[in-house]
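A.,

Following up on our hallway conversation. C-alpha cells first:
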C-alpha cells in the first residue's frame, strides 16, 4: 500500500502500456484470430460469454468444421446446432446464435452489418459490448467493449464502487472504456483488454506484480484488489424438485421429449419431467398404462444461476408403446442421434447399459449450468 493515491493515466499512456504488454504476453494464436471474418469472431464472442477460452476452443473448432459460414448455420436445424452446443452451457446462446444467423441471411443478404453498431447490437444474443468486439476484431474500426474482463480491469484501476450491473455503475464503466479506447490498432487493443482481465487481473488471484498498471491502480494502492468489482447482492438459491422418467422399451431405447423453445433447457431434448410422483403416474396412466415402474435411483442436484434442481430419476420399462406423441422420440444410447440434450440427461443416457435399468452413477452433482 502507498500513502499517496496513484496518478490517473492519460489515455495514450494507458494504450501504450497495454499494447507493449500485449506484444509480449498476450494471446496471438487462438483459432478465431486466424481468418478474422465477422462470422468467426461473432461465433467466438458468443461462445466466450461466461465461458473460459480453454473450454471454448474445441467447441469452436467443431462448430467451424460443421458450419463454416453463416449460410451453413442459417440452413441447419436447431437440433444440429444445439447438439454441437451440448455441454457448453447457457443454451440460450446457441438458440440466439441460430436465430441471428437466419436474421443475417434473411435481412442482411448474408453479410453482418458491421458498419452499424446499432444494427449489430440488435441481432439476437448480441448486445453493445459483443457488437463492439465483433466490429473492432473483424474490421479494425473503433468500437468500445465492456465485457466482464474489461469491467474487472476498470473497476480495479479506478476503484469504482458498486455492483457493475447497476445502471449508474455501468454508465461510469462505459465512459471509462470509451475514454481509453484508441482510434488505431483496435484489433490488438480489444484483445489486449480481454487478455489482461483474463490472465493477470483475474477475479480470484490477480497477479499485480506482473501488471503494467500496478502503479496506477487505485484498488492495488489500497490493497483491496479482491474487493473490486463488487459482487451482485446474493440471495439464497431456492431448491426445486423434479422427477425424470427413464422409460425404456424392449430394445433398450429411451423415450425423450423436446422442451419448449423458451425456458429451462429450451429446445433441447430431455426425459419426461414432472414435479412429483403423482404427475409421473398420471402421465403413465394416460400414455403408457402397461409400463412397469422400478425403484427410484438416487437423486442428484443440478445448479442453475438462480435455483438448484434436485432430480430423481424414475426408471420404468415398457414392451411396446403404440404412439409416442408429437414432440417425443425414442433414443438409442448405443447409437445416439445428433440432437441437443440437456446436460444432466446426456449424463444419464451415457451411463445406461443396453437392455437394463440398473441404476447408474449420478452424472452430475452440484454442476453449474451455463
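Then the amino acids I'd put at each of the 370 positions:
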Amino acid at each position: 500500500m502507498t500513502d499517496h493515491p496513484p496518478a490517473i493515466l492519460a489515455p495514450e499512456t494507458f494504450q501504450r502500456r497495454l499494447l507493449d504488454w500485449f506484444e509480449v504476453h498476450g494471446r496471438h494464436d487462438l483459432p478465431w484470430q486466424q481468418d478474422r471474418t465477422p462470422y468467426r469472431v461473432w461465433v467466438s464472442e458468443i461462445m466466450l460469454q461466461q465461458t473460459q477460452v480453454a473450454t471454448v476452443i474445441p467447441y469452436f473448432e467443431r462448430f467451424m468444421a460443421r458450419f463454416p459460414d453463416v449460410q451453413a448455420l442459417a440452413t441447419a436445424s436447431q437440433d444440429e446446432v444445439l447438439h454441437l452446443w451440448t455441454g457448453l452451457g447457457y443454451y440460450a446462446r446457441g438458440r440466439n446464435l441460430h436465430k441471428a444467423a437466419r436474421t443475417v441471411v434473411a435481412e442482411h443478404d448474408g453479410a453482418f452489418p458491421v458498419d452499424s453498431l446499432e444494427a449489430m447490437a440488435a441481432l439476437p444474443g448480441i448486445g453493445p459490448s459483443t457488437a463492439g468486439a465483433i466490429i473492432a476484431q473483424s474490421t479494425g474500426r473503433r468500437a468500445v467493449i465492456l465485457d466482464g474482463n474489461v469491467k474487472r480491469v476498470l473497476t480495479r484501476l479506478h476503484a469504482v464502487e458498486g455492483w457493475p450491473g447497476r445502471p449508474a455503475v455501468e454508465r461510469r464503466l462505459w465512459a471509462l472504456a470509451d475514454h481509453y479506447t484508441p482510434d488505431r490498432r483496435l484489433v490488438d487493443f480489444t484483445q489486449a483488454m480481454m487478455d489482461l482481465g483474463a490472465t493477470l487481473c483475474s477475479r480470484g488471484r490477480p497477479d499485480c506484480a506482473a501488471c503494467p498498471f500496478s502503479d496506477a491502480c487505485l484498488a492495488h494502492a489500497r490493497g483491496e484488489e479482491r474487493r473490486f468489482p463488487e459482487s451482485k447482492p446474493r440471495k439464497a438459491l431456492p431448491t426445486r424438485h423434479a422427477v425424470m422418467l427413464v422409460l425404456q422399451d424392449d430394445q433398450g431405447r429411451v423415450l425423450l421429449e423436446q422442451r419448449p423453445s423458451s425456458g429451462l433447457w429450451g429446445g433441447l431434448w430431455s426425459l419426461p419431467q414432472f414435479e412429483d410422483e403423482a404427475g409421473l403416474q398420471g402421465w403413465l396412466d394416460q400414455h403408457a398404462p402397461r409400463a412397469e415402474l422400478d425403484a427410484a435411483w438416487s437423486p442428484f442436484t443440478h445448479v442453475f444461476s438462480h435455483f438448484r434442481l434436485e432430480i430423481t430419476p424414475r426408471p420404468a420399462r415398457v414392451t411396446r408403446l403404440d404412439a409416442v406423441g408429437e414432440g417425443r422420440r425414442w433414443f438409442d444410447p448405443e447409437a445416439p442421434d445428433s440432437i441437443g440434450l440437456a446436460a444432466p440427461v446426456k449424463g444419464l443416457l451415457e451411463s445406461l447399459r443396453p437392455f437394463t435399468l440398473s441404476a447408474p452413477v449420478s452424472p452430475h452433482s452440484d454442476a453449474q449450468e451455463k
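The chain is about 40% helix and 10% strand. Curious whether your intuition agrees with the design.

B.
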